């Protein structure tokens, strides 16, 4: 990783090029310049993103909300193997279903999402609102 020298930094301010290396920097890299040629090399530890999967805490799971879609469904990092055992999320009862249609009106359900992770949904409502959660927050699932 390199911290770009002043002449190699992207322009400051708004606009579509903010944070994107300017043409000359990209051209220098394409021509074979090393990162050291562009600026001071950094030895920082790489930024680590949240664990890819939820963690087990006793009989419960500590899951992270990865995304809330425009329907209010809550996509988590819970693995599918936990689906059959889910009964409560953040103190709210939840039922496991295979399809959204199986949920009763305003019932909070857990199901397998297309990403291979567990999602929480609320029939005709927002699971994110019911669970008072948003991306990046933690859910306790038992």
Tell me about this structure.
The protein is elongated. The protein has helices spanning 23-30, 35-38, 127-130; strands at residues 2-4, 39-41, 55-57, 60-68, 74-79, 88-89, 92-93, 95-96, 108-112, 117-122, 138-141. The chain is mainly beta and 142 residues long. The longest helix has 8 residues, at 23-30. The chain folds into two domains: 2-41, no CATH class; 55-141, Elongation Factor Tu (Ef-tu), domain 3, CATH 2.40.30. A hairpin with a 4-residue loop joins β9 and β10 (117-122). The chain is built from three helices and eleven strands, in the order βααβββββββββαβ.
Keywords summarizing the entry:
142 residues, 2 domains, mainly beta, Elongation Factor Tu (Ef-tu), domain 3, two-stranded antiparallel ribbon, 11 strands, seven-stranded mixed beta sheet, 11% helix, 3 helices
């Amino acid at each position: 990783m390199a911290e770009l020298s002043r002449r190699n930094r992207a322009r400051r301010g708004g606009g579509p090029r903010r944070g994107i290396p300017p043409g000359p920097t990209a051209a220098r890299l394409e021509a074979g310049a090393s990162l050291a040629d562009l600026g001071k090399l950094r030895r920082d530890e790489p930024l680590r993103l949240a664990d890819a999967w939820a963690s087990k805490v006793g009989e419960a799971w500590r899951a992270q909300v990865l995304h809330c879609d425009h329907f209010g469904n809550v996509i988590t990092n819970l693995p599918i193997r936990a689906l059959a055992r889910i009964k409560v999320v953040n103190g709210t009862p939840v039922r496991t279903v295979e399809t959204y249609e199986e949920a009763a009106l305003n019932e909070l359900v857990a199901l397998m999402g297309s990403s291979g992770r567990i999602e929480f949904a609320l029939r005709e409502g927002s699971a994110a609102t019911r669970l008072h959660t948003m991306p990046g927050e933690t859910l306790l699932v038992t």
